[in-house]
């Protein structure tokens, strides 16, 4: 699920910079009906109050039932040292999700600093997945490149090879985050299964979400996908799947 | 029996049209008495997931000065295979391919539910889309790095077969060759010298060599194979271009103390337009300008390089103290018109803390349908995500952007078209349906919209021309047809035809019916667009006076105070930016811009919309305000105290945590999809950023009128601005006293 997240904006460069949504979230788009209702007009005596402007939205989901049915119970005085009256307390039953937005999509608390990449949402359990193996990833890419050498110009193949080396360098020297490594693994799995569009989509989401880490070499992967998908299938034969089973692609 | 509300909504859903009046007065005299003219907001490419395009050419009327498209309003004789044009009454035979049609086997374009229909037409060779990046290198390193990355990222978002090119500029202008091997080459132009299109093409080596001995020959055409050195398909050049972008350096010319960098934006744009002009006329092309400051050199300069001379403010302009304004506005206007004639568009991505000259350059985008995005820095999520969304795709995975649009309007003979307001230019098409009275861009029945998307909306103005006392035809209806031809992002050429009709009504006997057909929202936005159009071409105060004579009260109150008409507190660039978006967005978004949405979240019940009034600001409420350009979440005083005390972290106050989260979730829905991305403000009672909310609400409680004894809820607002109540009273007096 690490392709769906929200980061705070860059408060240093833009004091009211909005949060940054991952590619996956932006592509998923909005699932709720928009807030298009207006408040009632001023009840002024003698004035022709215009009827309320507001698009008749198809249903009332805009006023989503976050708090329905809750009457705040009597105040619970917790700490007598606080001079302000605490809010009405209450533990509500777990809300059924009004929307189908996935769990990693809540806005984070106000950003604490320019570098805080607060990936939001409750990720209670530590991630149990082992980091993907570089060998698994680069072997798929190398095989794809080999298959291309017949039909694609030498210059282009060298260019791609150069970038694959950059990828390996970055990987081994620890410059890549585990998210990027995991998604590269997912990308190569899609390539192995000849799911070119899915692989292309992962490359795109990596470029959008992690451009700083991947921009130097990702264009080589992009090219590799584009070239291999044009090859006839018999030229492309990947070695059998390796034993490490990664997480399923969560697009 | 549907209500007018439902009728209006159904028509908008199907045709993308909202008329100010849905019953039209049958006489010219009566029509002119209406404060709001017969007019509509029209969204030519409204998204219609339920409308698959048909794969054949439209059938058109044979009369030379008509050529209306076959539509559900036409009378058809299925046996004789003849149809009568509802605009000019010419009888036309059906083409041979329609031989099999009958009463029970009708072609789609005759059916009422296809009042809007789209045709895919195969015409000529497929032309690829073109994206030409024009990049300012006079940026701080952090900004340049962020911009490099965004541009590299965009190569993954472009359509794979699109052509892409790169021009960089600072003191000089460099056109980069995108060859696939060897050393990177570029052609350098001086940033101070204005060049003609022909000169640019010659210097880039794009002209075919002239045959000797041919005197007086017309100018040699561009050599397309030469042009492709500068514009290459993405799939072929992406690796090279990625490296090239990665190696882009800041402009090497040192900037002395007290000076601005020398930025030759004018020449850079002229080179870009010239490059495209010869080889790719009337192909979908976007020139994308990325700039981090004002043009300071050469034609189109907005301010000199001395920092002690500030860039023009509204005050300077009103005092006629803006040295470069007229000349550079004219320069860009000429460039914009040339670009529009070529069918290309120009986007401006301006990220800087100070102004960048949008006031002078705005016509580049306004006339061509290009975007203007205004941010503080390229290293902000506002720029990065807005830029990503330029390449957003629709429900079927196709790019939303469309190119090379031409829109034509046909009317039945009782109507004429007066003009259009939106991101368009006139095509100067005269004809029987063109009125002599101009409103907006008039004097034509055809306009060019070089770049458009599913939300692009034009305001169209009409005039009733039938004579007073001419009998209203029984059951007669006036009809209007919009024919929009464009290049779809898949490079297919398409034609979308929308044909609408409304009943005529005799104003003498049916005035109440006409009144009940009034669409207040559409009218408000249409009048607002007219106001903005006039504000941009006339003096400001006159527009406000004109507006006061219009009688759409509540909306006009907010419009008057809005940044569209009220330039106080905004720079000229900011005003240009807000207006740019206002005259092209659809109705719902336009309404939000003038009269922001305000939602209230509290323990007292579910979230609800509340009045945009200071009385809505209460201590135990959270407010979410959407002005389209900003999203403001405001925590009332008590809420803020609770938040500060950390109650949301305690298990027994789970409901408070959810209360805090609710407006964030709703804001997120908007943030995820809106173009351009709005600014995001999280503030509270007493916070300095609360001013965004306070300046928008109706100040029913000000320090002038609130007294200490009342129990009135709501925070008083420190302003000298009049409240809605006072405004309404004043307006009532005006309306009664004036005898117009």
First-to-last CA distance of chain A? 8 Å
Return the average pLDDT of chain B rounded to an integer: 88
* Biggest sheet strand line-up of chain A: 1-2
How many alpha or pi helices of chain A? 6
Oligomer classification = heterodimer
The coarse overall form of chain B would be globular
Q: Kindly report the average pLDDT value of chain A.
A: 69
Structural class of chain A: mainly alpha
Helical percentage of chain A:
25-40%
Radius of gyration of chain B: 28 Å
- The low-confidence runs of chain B, each spanning 5 or more residues with pLDDT under 50, are 211-217, 707-712
How much helical structure, as a percent, in the residues of chain B? 25-40%
Structural class of chain B: alpha+beta
Per DSSP, what share of the residues of chain A sits in E-state strands of 2 or more residues? under 5%
Radius of gyration of chain A: 26 Å
Report low-confidence residues of chain A grouped into runs of 5 or more: 44-82, 92-126, 241-251
Domain Sec23/Sec24 trunk (chain B): 127-391
GO biological process, one term (chain B): intracellular protein transport
GO molecular function (chain B): GTPase activator activity; zinc ion binding
Organism (chain B): Gadus morhua
Question: Would you mind describing this structure in some detail?
Answer:
The N and C termini of chain A lie close together (8 Å). Helix content of chain A is 35%, strand content 2%. Chain A is elongated. In chain A, helix 2 packs across helix 4, helix 3 runs antiparallel to helix 6 and helix 5 runs antiparallel to helix 6. Chain A has a two-stranded antiparallel ribbon with strand order 1-2. By secondary structure, chain A is mainly alpha-helical. Chain B has 740 residues and is α+β, with helices and mostly antiparallel strands. Helices cover 30% and strands 21% of the residues of chain B. In chain B, helix 4 crosses helix 7 and helix 9 packs parallel to helix 10. Chain B is globular, with a radius of gyration of 28 Å. About 2% of the residues of chain B have low confidence. Chains A and B meet through strand 1, strand 2, helix 1, helix 3 and helix 5 of A and helix 1, helix 3, helix 6, helix 11 and helix 13 of B.
